[in-house]
Design brief:
Layout lengths: L9 H7 L2 H11 L5 E7 L17 H16 L6 E5 L2 H12 L5 E5 L21 H18 L11 E7 L1 H11 L17 E6 L5 E8 L9
Parallel strand pairs: 1-4, 2-3, 2-4
Antiparallel strand pairs: 1-5, 5-6
């Protein structure tokens, strides 16, 4: 419900002022800027940790985050913000990346935490969470998609460049939803640690996927 027509009370406008006023109201509600969304998967972490606080980045993971931060800085873009998952591995990845992007504000959110977004189709044998996990995580990850992945606000004058540091399942689900692909296919994609996925959202709401899981900027022994 972000298209301009849905943001106007048509019944009220037609009674009061008619078609000319409707046209100017529509123009006022139209987005003007493009949003560039950079979805970063966290770096390699300690899989043996039982609790989230113990799942810290490995030495390789810290190197990966440095390389990702260098890559983002080298693009020469004016990043507006870094929004990151509150899980330890994403938080630590963000801290390293942000050193290469001084002055960019950071915002932590629970919405982007890892989880099971929707039951994959076809099913896989190696990963079968409890059904209740899809209901709990799925609603939250869908809320993250609706909250963060949308056309620019009509008040936004210039194109924006935003970084989201989160998790493979979340990114894969968001990509499927943004491209209007069946979200049940999210598990058919694979993303490396520290990879960059670039979505573009035009003012008319059209979405393009520029890159998916890019790690071409890393030496092969760091992937």
């Amino acid at each position: 419900r972000r298209e301009p027509l849905s943001r106007i009370n048509l019944k009220k406008k037609n009674e009061e002022t008619g078609e000319e006023e409707l046209g100017s109201r529509l123009d006022h509600c139209k987005a003007k800027a493009t949003r560039h969304i950079f979805l970063i998967r966290h770096s390699q972490y300690n899989l043996d940790g039982r609790a989230d606080k113990d799942r810290t980045l490995t030495p390789l993971g810290r190197e990966q985050a440095e390389l990702t931060g260098q890559r983002l800085a080298s693009l020469g873009l004016k990043f507006d913000q870094i929004i990151y998952s509150s899980m330890t591995r994403a938080t630590e990845t963000t801290e390293i990346i942000s050193k290469h992007l001084p002055g960019v504000k950071k915002i932590s959110t629970d919405l982007l935490r890892e989880g099971a977004p929707i039951e994959p189709d076809p099913p896989v044998s190696h990963w079968k969470p409890e059904a209740v996990q899809y209901y709990e995580d799925g609603a939250r990850i869908e809320a993250a998609f609706r909250n963060f992945i949308h056309r620019a606000d009509a008040k936004q004058e210039e194109d924006s460049y935003e970084i989201f540091v989160c998790h493979a399942n979340v990114i894969r689900y968001i990509v499927c939803r943004a491209l209007q692909f069946p979200p049940e296919g999210w598990l058919r994609m694979s993303l490396n640690n520290g990879s960059i996925t670039h979505l573009v959202i035009r003012p008319n709401g059209r979405v393009a996927l520029r890159t998916l899981g890019d790690t071409g900027f890393m030496p092969p022994d760091k992937i």
